[in-house]
Structure formats: C-alpha cells, structure tokens
Amino acid sequence: KQWYQRRVRGVLVTLLNVVTAILSAFLDNVTTILLISPITITLCQVMHMDPRKVLLSLVMFSNIGGASTGVGDPPNVLIINSPSVQEVVSFSTFTLHMAVGSIFCIAAAYAYLWFVYKRQDGKLLVQNSEVEELLREAELWKRIADRSYMGNSEEVAVKEMLANKAARVQKFAEEKRITPKTSCSTYSVNLPKLRAKYGVRDKGKLVKTAVVLTISILLFFLYTLPNIHTAPGEIAMAGAIALIIVIDHHDMEGLLHKIEWATLMFFAGLFILVEVLSRLGLIGLMGDYAISAVTSVSPKYQLAAAISIVLWMSAVISAFIDNIPFTAAMIPVLSLISSETDLPMAPLIYALAFGACMGGNGTLIGASANVVAVGIAEEKGYKISFLEFARLGVPIMLITVTVAHLYLLICHCAIGWGNI
Length: 420
Fold this sequence. Notes:
The chain has helices spanning 2-26, 29-46, 51-66, 74-80, 83-86, 91-119, 121-124, 129-147, 153-178, 187-197, 203-222, 232-247, 252-257, 261-279, 282-295, 302-318, 323-341, 345-359, 368-379, 386-415. By secondary structure, it is mainly α.
C-alpha cells in the first residue's frame, strides 16, 4: 500500500512538472505559474503532501520549459523582438535551437529531482494535516493583521483582535502537534470531499471566464507576430477588464485588495535598480570585460570562450538580478562583442537566452515566475524562504547551465550549426 501511494505521488509530481514545462513553452511562464499553482496547492492538500516542495519543482520546470521557444520566457520575448537580433536569427530558427537544448536540460533536471525526492519521500508528506492546516490558518490571520491600518482607535482594536486570533490558532496548533494524528486518509477517500468542497457553483461565470481566458491566451500566442503591435501587459489588462464587465462584478474594492501589490512593487524596484546600474555604466563595463576576456584567447578558441563567458555570466547574474531587465541590458552588449571580435552573433544570442532562463532558477529573485509562485504560496499560508528556494534552485541551475554549455559548444564550435 505504501509503495502504491509513493507511486501515485511520483506520477502526480511528474505530470504536474511535464504539463508546466509544456505550457511554459507556449505561454509566458508567469501566466503558467498563475494557472498551475492554485491547482497544485489543492491537489497537495488532498494528497497530504507539502505544497512548497512541489511548487518549487514546478517553478524550475516552468523556467526551463519557457526557454524552449521565443514566447515562453520573458527574456526570450525581449531577445526575439530586438531589431539587432531579428537581423541575425528568425523566430523559427531561435525556437528550434532553444527547444533541442531545453529538452536535454529538462531531462537532466528531472533526473536530479527524481533522485532528491526519492530520497526525501517522507519529507514530501504532511505528517499531521490537521496541524498543518491550523498553522496555515494562523499565518493567514497574521497576514490580515499586518495589512490592517491603524488610523483610529477602532482600527487599532481590530488589528489587536486579529493578532490575538492568530496567536490562539498558533497555540492550538502547537498543542495538537503534541498528540499527532496517526491515521492518514488516501486520495480516494479525499476525492469526494474535494469535489463537494470545490464544485462548480456558477456554470455561467465559468463559461464566460473560460471564453475570456481562451481569447487572452490566443492573443498571448499572436502578439509576437510582425503586424500585431500589442504588449503582453495590454493584453492582460484588456482581458481583466473584459472579464469584470462580462461577469458583472461589483465588489471592486475587494477585487483590488486581492492584487499582489507587494509583488508588483518588488518588480518595479528591480527594474529601477537595473536602470540605475545601466546609467552608472555597469552594463557597459561588463561588456568591456567580456571583450577583453575573449580577445585574450587564441582566435581558434574565441567562439568557445565567448559562449562560455556570456552563458555563465548571464546565469550567475540572473540568479541575483531579475532576468528580464538584465536581458534587456545585455542585448546591446552582445552586438558590441560580435562587432569588436568578428564572431557570429547567433551563438551568443542562444548563450544569453539559456543563461538568463536557467540562471533564473538559482534564487528566489532570479525570475518573475519565482516571485509569483512564492507570493501565491504565502497567500495560501505556505512560506518559502530564500534559503529553502536556493537549496533546490542552485543545484538545478548548475546542472542545467552545464548541460546547455555542452550543447552550445557541440553545436556551434564542433558542428558549426547556424553560426551567423
């Protein structure tokens, strides 16, 4: 019975990872995480699994799968829409080169995750689901209390009441932990409860939401076409406004309260930081160092050196700086390196794409999808710390970047595939 349950958990995690990687290849990986994360958390709760560990693997596969096409990952969208890149690499050529390398990276990442999770199978389980649910409830009460304003005495009293509620739930959970629940229901027992709890309550709204979502997804696919001059943000806002109108939603204040303002402000701060660094000359300085390093190598090995420098520099920096603004700043650097060294630009473009996408797995702030997934988990009461993310992300980053490095060296140095 235990062997069968382990197999079911393994199949579930594998299917979620594969579906996430495939969706991320055709959708923006942030959109994929927004769609998959709530479903994953619910499934993990039913299976008595820790959603944090499963969400971490989904984010890794989302970033890797998103690297395989020109529309899957925001850095790739920036690269393929750059005029200097379009003169060298077409959308189909870029997707072909990236897809082949991404398949090898997915296989290597899956092998590592299989090894890690097989050894830690017991840690994937929630030993006492009732205690975990109470702790999650306490965390939610704390978040509500922290978000409460203290403008007058009544609001101060409400804030104190919420804080006391969180403390009581936390204390009750700790008492429950002393006498843990030993029985563990299987997924077949919990499935009817899940259907009863999360059944469709308004089929009309479901159909309207599905139609608006489908149209928005199709527009995400089409916005990179030459004759369509629409940004992804405009598509998302238009879809949101259309959905509000179609379903006739009236509680705008409650809707605005659910927006992750902290995450949006975090992204805004990252973009400001990178722009400041660019204006201070740091990006240009990196380009100068890269050119000096490449030219110091024998002409026979300059292409291999350039690929290695761009790939690993992009991966390491993208692990600590959001890869979207970093990629935007690095595209001119590639043109500079290519013009100064007479090296083909195409291999450098692929190296930047692989480095930015795979390097984003290194830390929590490395990619937009990472921050979004952690924000959703925290909203549901599951905290994922920076170190917890890095413990899984850094090995995945090193493995996938190494695989991409070997792939690029074989394709462009040994074979000379697509060197333009």
